[in-house]
Amino acid sequence: MKNINKWFKNLGFGSKITIICILVGLIPVILIGSFSYYQMRNLLITREKENLNTALTQAMDNMNYKMEVNLNSMNYLIWNTPFVNALNQDYKRNIDMFLAYRDAIDNQLLTVRNLNRDIVSFTVYTNGSLYPHGNNLRPFRDIESAEWLTALPRPLTTYAIVNYPEHTIRFAARLNDNGTGNTNILSMTTNYKKTFSKLSSLLKKEYGLIITDSNNKTIYTYDNYNETNYNYRLSPDKLLKSLQNDTLKTQYIYYSSHMESTDWTAYIYRPIRIVSAAARNLSVLVFIVIIISVTILLFISFKLSRITVQPLVKLSGYMKKVENGDLSVAMTYDRTDEIGELIKHFNIMILRLNQMIDEVYKSTISKQQYEMKALQAQINPHFFYNSLSLINGKAILSGQNDISQMAQLLSTFYRTTLNNGKNRITVKGEWDNTVSYIKIQQLMHPGSFEAVLDIEESILAFQMINLILQPLVENAIIHGISHKETPGSGTLTVTGKKIDAAIVFTVKDNGCGIPDEILQNITAKASKGYGVQNVQRRINLAYGDNYGITYISKIHVGTKVTLRIPVEL
């Protein structure tokens, strides 16, 4: 075994591919062929079970309907008061009997027979005072010793009694005696052959069918096996015995259905060997396919080994160049398989290496530029504040109060915005920044909106990240109130308060509102300038996903933004 492993390891890659393809290819072909045979066999058996189920269910539904019609015919007479009274009356005159025959007995029996064409005959057996009248009315002594009479234990209940050897179906019931003590038996016979006629044409293929009653007595049997397959025929006793021993399923596909109206059970069966005959024919075809597949596999495995090895050898050469420090290589390829993907990712890797080298140089330059800007940021604010202070002083001396106010607001706004380069600020500082911005906007756009500002003094000393409230106010003014289409001036309401362990700011406007398609992604979609997405991201990074901003808006009504952050000392 060790020698075989050593021999295989030392083989060329192309030879290894050929051997592996042959071995790996043959095994699946053989397994698939075997699997196909058994799968086809199981599929045929499953489909045959479904066919038997469908055929028998439909047939039993039809049978059940016929039986219900017959039972209804019996019930019509059982509960027919004139009919029952006529049988129990004590007759003294022949004319009274004649009228009973004509109006109550013959007429009712004829009516039922006209409604149900499957009825062969009606006979009432009675020991009352009525004289026998043809086949419709017979003396009870005619059936006193009849075996089927014992099958009528309860009065006013119809029982179906089948004589399988004679192929007859009798529906019988004990009628009410109205307290006279008479014995009245109603007997109705139907056409046996017509009743079960549909069961002889359920399937075009060979099958067997057996129906038994609740006592396992045979009601009906049918099979159409030819001489070759006649041995597959089952007698009722053999079928029931096989069911009890649970051996029927080893040789037959079968299905049973119970008929509630008569308490009968029908069994339909077909031999598995007949059903799976098509699968045996498939096995020959599978063997031929295996031979053809092996031949094709040998050819393909040889070609595959050549197609696979050549680009890998070429790729190995390019890798050696990279190993020697040559990062200018780029291997061309025109395939999208795994080898093509390997070459593609090799090229991407070289490109990324070059990009990373460039990024190192660029990051060094960017760092130097950032340090320069930071130095400028420390210098420029002082110059800016001194300039604003000078403008404020000149404005006061000149009596220009508006200019003085604007200069003071700008000074406050930019001082709190820059915040000495820090990203943490007191709630008071953030509030002053926001109020300054609002007043600047009111000076720039006189009469455009009114501002309602309210904050709890208890939260002013708390800490928070800067520049998260002013952008929300800016959006409310620029995108909300400035585009207001409804009558009346704009109103901007900004509040801040402590709720439980959180600081909650609200910014509310009566502007144009935000469309639903924008509102759904307003905190996730990037926007121009210092947008909502940036505010949300900074809050999540600083405080976690449990804090942030939420929007409620309605077109032409306005927008309400809620900003929630934790209390931070």
Specify the CATH homologous superfamily of one domain: Histidine kinase-like ATPase, C-terminal domain
Order of adjacent strands in the largest pleated sheet: 2-1-5-4-3
Number of strands: 16
* CATH 2nd-level architecture of one domain: 2-Layer Sandwich
Q: What's the pLDDT, averaged over the residues?
A: 82
Using the CA coordinates, give the radius of gyration: 50 Å
**Class from helix and strand fractions:** alpha+beta
Helix content: 40-55%
Number of helices: 14
Strand content: 15-25%
Largest sheet: 5 strands, mixed
How does this structure look, described?
The protein is of the alpha+beta class. Among the domains are: 79-195, Beta-Lactamase, CATH 3.30.450; 423-566, Histidine kinase-like ATPase, C-terminal domain (Heat Shock Protein 90). The protein has helices at residues 2-9, 13-78, 81-88, 94-115, 192-195, 236-245, 272-275, 277-323, 338-398, 401-418, 427-444, 470-480, 516-519, 532-543, and strands at residues 119-126, 137-139, 159-163, 168-174, 184-190, 208-212, 218-223, 252-259, 264-271, 424-426, 449-455, 463-465, 490-499, 502-509, 548-554, 558-566. The strands form four sheets. It has a five-stranded mixed beta sheet with strand order 2-1-5-4-3. Strands 11-13-14-16-15 form a five-stranded mixed beta sheet. It has a four-stranded antiparallel beta sheet with strand order 7-6-9-8. The longest helix has 66 residues, at 13-78. The two termini are 75 Å apart.
List the helices and strands and how they pair.
Blueprint: H1 2-9, H2 13-78, H3 81-88, H4 94-115, E1 119-126, E2 137-139, E3 159-163, E4 168-174, E5 184-190, H5 192-195, E6 208-212, E7 218-223, H6 236-245, E8 252-259, E9 264-271, H7 272-275, H8 277-323, H9 338-398, H10 401-418, E10 424-426, H11 427-444, E11 449-455, E12 463-465, H12 470-480, E13 490-499, E14 502-509, H13 516-519, H14 532-543, E15 548-554, E16 558-566
Parallel strand pairs: 1-2, 11-13
Antiparallel strand pairs: 1-5, 3-4, 4-5, 6-7, 6-9, 8-9, 10-12, 13-14, 14-16, 15-16
Helix pairs in contact: 2-8, 3-4, 9-10, 10-11, 11-12
